[in-house]
Amino acid sequence: MKSSDHLLRGTSRSFYLSIRWLPGEVRESITLGYLLARASDSIADASTAPVERRVEALHALRDGDVGVRIVDELAGHQTNAAEKELVENLPSLLDELDASPDQSALQSVWSKILEGQIFDLVRFVNNTTPLTPEELDEYTYLVAGSVGEFWSDLCHDRISQFATLPAPEHRLLAMNYGKGLQRVNVLRDYQADLTLGRQYIAPGRFEAERTAAHSQLQDGITWVGAVRGRRMRLSAILPAHIALEMLPLLGEQSPKVKLTRQAIHRQLWTALPILWSSRLSAAE
Questions:
Q1: Where are the domains of the chain?
Q2: Which strand (E) or helix (H) includes residue 47?
Q3: Which of these, 212, 232, 214, lies nearest to 223 by C-alpha position?
Q4: In terms of Cα–Cα distance, which of 217, 115, 228 is closest to 162?
Q5: Which CATH class is domain 129-284?
Q6: b/e for 198-222, b at 16 or more Cβ within 10 A?
Q7: DSSP for 178-247?
Q8: In Å, how far from its chain's centre is CA 178?
Q9: pLDDT one digit per residue (tens) for the chain, 284 residues
Q10: CA–CA separation, 243 vs 258, rounded Å?
């Protein structure tokens, strides 16, 4: 299997920057969780395989019934070299999952992500109506809010005196943080998704969803502000900085916005002062 570092470099610029700052107690499990989710996302979205075959494969992953033949077939449908390599390494990632001390938590969060990815594929097959606000909220929870919960729970479990807030309250903030990050993705991809027959945001709700995303990102910054460890603070704050820089650039009629590598690195430097801050506000 290719190293996790190599796979991360190929599939995520921003998360690769964040992952290096994670405390050792949680870095391995969070990295594995990310790679599993990204591999199934590659099957769901970055594949030329028929939708029915992709849905079947995602069900097999959720049920623990994926074989080498399926992996080889799906890897052959990847148009991006890094995504292809990630899918090819899926059997090794599954072996790591089986051996992980956090297998139960990882399997739980990945099952939710897979449920969201399956919903994303089948919802628009014979139904071109926009998602209702309730459907969008559930979708953002499954594919991202659940990840925030996983991060928060794992850190409270593994790191002594992890945060100044009680774990349940901290967990809710983490869930909203994940949902906010996914809302930004939905807003960013609005026009591109429309061309594919996918309308995640109902007419007239773009600004409302932008406001919701901003509020949830503020919850994320509050989550980070309650964390005692400097390394975790720096790792967790970077996605919020990137999303908040992108959010004002997004419009209902605008093409897809993608920040440059320089902009991402600038946000890393902007985030550095939190290492010495005793308190974060939502505006920071």
A1: 1-122, 129-284
A2: none
A3: 232
A4: 228
A5: mainly alpha
A6: bebbbeebbeebbebbbebbbbbbb
A7: HHHHHHHHHHHTHHHHHHTT---S-TT-HHHHHHHHHHHHHHHHHHHHTB--HHHHHHHHHHHHHHHHHG
A8: 7
A9: 556 766 766 566 566 667 777 889 999 999 999 999 999 998 888 678 888 989 998 998 888 877 667 777 878 888 888 888 888 888 899 999 999 999 999 999 999 999 999 999 999 988 889 999 999 999 999 999 999 999 999 999 999 999 999 999 999 999 999 999 999 999 999 999 998 889 999 999 999 999 999 999 999 999 999 999 888 888 888 888 889 888 998 988 776 666 555 555 455 545 545 444 555 443 33
A10: 11
The tokens describing 202, both together, are: 């109902």
Collapse the DSSP code of 66 into the 3-class scheme (helix H, G, I; strand E, B; otherwise coil) and give the result. Answer: coil
Contacts of residues 251-256 at CB distance under 8 Å and 24 or more positions apart, as own/partner, are 251/206, 252/190, 252/191, 252/206, 253/191, 254/191, 255/191, 255/192, 256/188, 256/189, 256/191, 256/192
**CA-derived radius of gyration, the chain:** 18
How far does Cα 163 stand from its chain's mean position? 22
Handedness of CA 189, 272, 225, 171 (dihedral sign): positive
Residue with tokens 């391995």: 28
Distance between CA 100 and CA 97 in Å, rounded?
5
Instruction: Please check whether residue 275 is in contact with residue 233, taking contact to mean a CB–CB distance below 8 angstroms.
Output: yes
Q: Which residue has the tokens 């390599």?
A: 85
Q: Which DSSP letter does residue 260 get? A: -
Quote the pTM value: 0.86
Q: Which two tokens stand for residue 133?
A: 């606000």
Beta bridge partners of 163: 227
Which residues is 21 bridged to in the sheet? none
Q: Which of 222, 265, 215, 212 is nearest to 242 (CA)?
A: 265
Q: How far apart are CA 172 and CA 75, in angstroms?
A: 36
